[in-house]
Amino acid sequence: MYFVLLALFYSTGITALAGVEQATDGWGIGAPFFAPWGLVSQPLPVIWVTCFMALLLFFFLGVAASTLWVRWKVYGLYGFFLGLAVVLVGLAWGITATNSWGALGDYLVSHSLLLIAAWSLPVTLACAVIGYLFLRRATPRL
After folding, report:
1. 16-74 residue pLDDT tens
2. What pTM value is reported for the model?
């Protein structure tokens, strides 16, 4: 619950600063910082939801990685990052082998930012559950 409240707080702050950027045309010099790339032209609620989902993802990914450390120390992190590398390389290889980079680009361009950000929610939920289950079984040390 703490991470959800923290994500609410931070995403609200980032969105407020993005609103100032939009009102001042990037601090008067056309240089957006809090709403970069495709976010700069989005309405503030879209920026808020996107930031909220991204923060939740990274908070709970950190929870999953840190509980692996608590439970299995360095070998847990080795396994986690090795598994993450295998998944990412496997995805890149699969997209390359099927010549689907163009189709992926078309999908990303033709769908809304909120829909694309919503795809992070299953990963966020999985990381939260994994973190909870591993921490529940961890041995407390003094």
Report:
1. 999 999 999 988 998 889 998 788 889 999 999 999 999 999 999 999 998 888 888 89
2. 0.86
Q: How far apart are CA 133 and CA 136, in angstroms?
A: 5
User: What domain range is 36 assigned to?
Assistant: 2-137
Q: Which amino acid is at 92?
A: A
Count of domains for the chain: 1
DSSP state, residue 33: S
Cβ neighbors of 119 (< 8 A, separation 6 or more) are none
Tokens standing for 128? Answer: 């939260």
Q: Is residue 19 part of a domain?
A: yes
Q: What CA–CA distance (Å, rounded) separates 116 from 107? A: 9
Does 142 fall in a domain?
A: no
Burial of 123 from C-beta contacts in 10 A (0-12 / 13-18 / 19+): middle
Q: Answer whether 113's CB lies under 8 Å from 52's CB.
A: no
Kindly state whether residue 68 falls inside one of the protein's structural domains.
Answer: yes
CA 124 to chain centre: 8
Asked whether residue 55 is assigned to any structural domain, the reply reads yes
